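User: Structure please.
Assistant: Input sequence and predicted structure:
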Amino acid sequence: MAETLRVCALYPDLMNIYADRGNLLLLQRRCAWRGIGFELTASGLGEPLDGDGADLFYIGGGQDRDQRLCAFDLAEVKREGLHAAAERGAAVLAVCGGYQLLGRSYELGDETLPGVGLVDLHTVRSDAPRLIGNIAIEVNLGERAGGVRVLAGFENHGGRTHLGPAAQPLGRVLKGHGNNGEDGFEGIRQRNVIGTYMHGPLLPKNAWLADWLIATALGRDAPLPPLDDAFEAAAHVEARRAAGA
């Protein structure tokens, strides 16, 4: 039987701005080109999350109103399932608003939204100008990902995210703002859980990260077979150029 990557998108109807649905499309295409099956399911508001139901869980960004709805649903309905998935080693990719909801809380004006508590971070909405622009960061996801690599994308967030003392950032900012515009770090990585402010979408500009997620979610120890990535490489180079890296 052919191998199949099972992906669960959380709140795809609400948490999908900045074209981040393109991340799912790239995962599907790169699986298809390698003869790997691809199964996409969704989990919306009020629907319990089966922690064993997927190999990779994805949550994008949304408007404040929608993010508020999803925050309470994550904390009250999906918390147990998402924690179980991460504990068994499933991959999790959360972008922008989804990244903020992975942590302990998100202070939005006078209201504090609950986080799902999957990673050690908290976010505060700032009255200062939004952190906007092209961004490039240096990351190291291990030898299977090729060692030290560059991720390039776009950020647009009013929240300032602060990692806890034991938390590991996804990478070091080369150009751009990152988590809060002050500490020089961007995103978070905890085992196979990745959160980031980089979108636009992220994976088409960084196909190597898509491959790392696929291989990790499938439990492969070796890198995936290479593809003809001329277009993907050009997109990555252009994203880095736009960021000035």
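The two ends are 43 Å apart (CA to CA).
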